[in-house]
Amino acid sequence: MEAEEGTQQPQLVLAHKLFLLTQNDVDDIEKVRLRDEVFNFIIANDMAPLYETLVANKIFDLDQKALDSMHVKIEEELKKHDEKIADAEENLGESEVREAHLAKSLFYIRIGDKEKALEQLKLTESKTVAVGQKMDLVFYTLQIGFFHKDFDLISKSIDKAKNLFEEGGDWERKNRLKVFEGLYCMSTRNFKKAADLFLDSISTFTTYELFPYDTFVFYTVLTSIISLDRVSLKQKVVDAPEILTVIGKIPYLSGFLNSLYDCQYKSFFTAFAGLTEHIKLDRYLHPHFRYYMREIRTVVYSQFLESYKSVTIEAMAKAFGVTVDFIDLELSRFIAAGKLHCKIDKVAGILETNRPDAKNALYQATIKQGDFLLNRIQKLSRVIDL
Known about the structure:
Blueprint: H1 10-21, H2 28-44, H3 48-56, H4 64-91, H5 94-111, H6 114-126, H7 131-148, H8 151-167, H9 171-187, H10 191-201, H11 213-225, H12 230-238, H13 241-244, H14 253-261, H15 265-280, H16 289-306, E1 310-312, H17 313-320, H18 324-336, E2 342-345, E3 350-353, H19 358-385
Antiparallel strand pairs: 1-3, 2-3
């Protein structure tokens, strides 16, 4: 179950392949190859509970002979684990008892039996004293959560891990937890917090069981671009040596980041188009694909307009390498949604920026909060009068 250093946890590789099998953007030939790989992995690891679920969801056709064979092997393996636990409880010490229970937990995780795995992990925890070992059990639980995308389980496990760290905990496990929490934040559309956690872990990354370092850099760049201001982006991402050593290996990502920072908008849109499929076919980013597309366009349009009091729509369209009609339609949507602070003079063909004044915004907020406070005081005075 436990991944070797530098390799992704096999069950999470399987989860990504299962995700691709459900996507219309993956061609049929690729799906045939993926289906064979998934089936062979399930058979090799006796993942009968997962296989039954996939058959119920009509992802696979039922092979009763293969299913019966897996059940027989699972029963034999469970019998061995129960014998080891009984032997450890009768003849060995507490440490050996814990190890025997842990081995049974990892077996349930390997075969994809979520409920029994969680139950066995709780039992293993009751036999565990050291904080570090309890933390490792939480990491196993988090991996189960990410395999099934059970965000409630993930959230509770992260809170539990943080409470354990108050009792003590080593530096490496704390850094690993940051990556787990960052992935959870990104998966639940909290890109700002995800970027902060990823950037904190960029030089100490050891969480290879979740994803390779290349993927980690990919996530870090994507979340940072829509979360950081221009100065922070330069310091923490564009010039970061850890990112520079890897970013060239990921198609379009270097052009995506650098063209945005260098204001090469035509190149940015080209790289942006190249990255869209990668984002769409990512298991964690897929649910937020449309949201991310809107946010990144907001960032790039805002950056362009920042330099001008007014600019012609034609000049902006030329800078981005698109048509005037496209820019007109795009900007009208973002302006209506309150994402861009400008207005379109369609007759003159000009965009006029109207950036909100920070002091005026603060004044308006004070007035609004003051009115709210006065209303509360009036309601309170009526209650007191009674």
